[in-house]
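[retry 2/3] Transcriptional regulator, hxlr family protein: previous attempt timed out, resubmitting with same input.
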Amino acid sequence: MTRTMATIGSKWKPIIIYALGERTLRFGQILVRIEIISKKVLTDQLKELEEDGIINRIAYKEIPPRVEYHLTEKGLELLPILNLMTLWNAKYSEQE
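[retry 2/3] Transcriptional regulator, hxlr family protein: success.
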């Protein structure tokens, strides 16, 4: 559990993983989906997720530069867990 939380336990990493889901998104598209995150924090979190093998970053040699992100197999395995957490939240949010 400690290693898992060290990998995805920040405030933003699970949200970024959930926002990516099974699709490929550019930086700006992720930023739009997570409106309250700053560009710097998103950049830092994406770098850490890439280092941990959760996401892949693909940089295209174009002008203007284009960078896309998608979940690796390792990252995709987290989606069912995050979906369960979302369902758990919905269940208990309704009771309040």
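[retry 2/3] Transcriptional regulator, hxlr family protein: The domain at 2-88 is CATH 1.10.10.10 (Arc Repressor Mutant, subunit A).
[retry 2/3] clearing retry counter.
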